Amino acid sequence: MNAPLSEQRLAEILARAAAATPGPWELCPSYGADFYANLSGSYLRGVGTLVFGDGEDAAADREFVLHAAEDVRELAAEVSRLWAERHSTNEALSDAAEALRVQRDRIAELETYEQLSPQQCPKGIHSDWLVDSEYAHACPWCRIDDLGTAHSNAVNLIAGLECDLSAANARLAELEALTPAPIQTCRKCGAGYDLGQPCSACQFQTLMAAEQAKRPSEGALAEQRHLVDPLDHAFEALALPHPTDAGSAL
């Protein structure tokens, strides 16, 4: 059994193929009945006179020799490709073996742990899951669904707000493009006022209210009167008219 092809052996074969006249080799009768050359280039590259005889293998030998240059190069290229593929496959197998070893070690480690407690979805719509305690836990998949619903609602709300903002911007642009009237109508009292100035009617009403607030009430006026005239208390107690009242006999 032949020894496996080595890289050195392949390199020697490739070197000989590279040094030889490239194919295809074809019969060139102008140089002789058995003269062969490479006619595919810009100029003729002679190979030489090749005599294969008249034996029963002559035709096969001729085909073998004429195609040897091309066949050797193709076979060597295929060998190089297969070697590269084998190297890649070996590396992948080595990586897979290492990964398998790590997983087996991890499995052995996990098998020493305590068993986890299975949990069921309260709604009965999601798969069971495991937790590290015997107490009930909220279903994480239900929580994810709730968060998804909240997210969708938030997206819809944001979309609505964006529409409102767009409409408000359009209305603002529309209003800013208008020329305001020199006389504006007060939205509080309905009176007219000059553009850019406060409403004079509202200012007047505010001042009147302030002055009205400063005036004492009727009860306060009566109290002040009693303080000024102490006889008022006495006359009120006797139910007699005050001497200063009109028509009094005193």
Question: Any overview of this molecule?
Answer:
The chain is mostly helical. The protein has a domain at 192-238. Helices cover 55% and strands 9% of the residues. It has seven helices and seven strands, in the order αβββααββαββααα. The chain has helices at residues 7-19, 58-66, 68-110, 140-177, 200-214, 218-228, 231-238; strands spanning 26-27, 35-38, 45-49, 117-119, 129-131, 183-185, 192-194. The strands form three sheets. The chain has a three-stranded antiparallel beta sheet, with no helix packed on it. A hairpin with a 6-residue loop joins strand 6 (183-185) and strand 7 (192-194). Helix 1 (7-19) runs antiparallel to helix 3 (68-110). The longest helix is centred in the middle third of the chain and has 43 residues, at 68-110. The protein is elongated. It starts with 6 loop residues before the first helix and ends in a 12-residue tail after the last helix. The model has no long low-confidence stretch (mean pLDDT 78).
Please specify the SSE layout and strand pairing.
Layout lengths: L6 H13 L6 E2 L7 E4 L6 E5 L8 H9 L1 H43 L6 E3 L9 E3 L8 H38 L5 E3 L6 E3 L5 H15 L3 H11 L2 H8 L12
Antiparallel strand pairs: 1-2, 2-3, 4-5, 6-7
Helix pairs in contact: 1-3
Compact description:
By secondary structure, the chain is mostly helical. It has seven helices and seven strands.
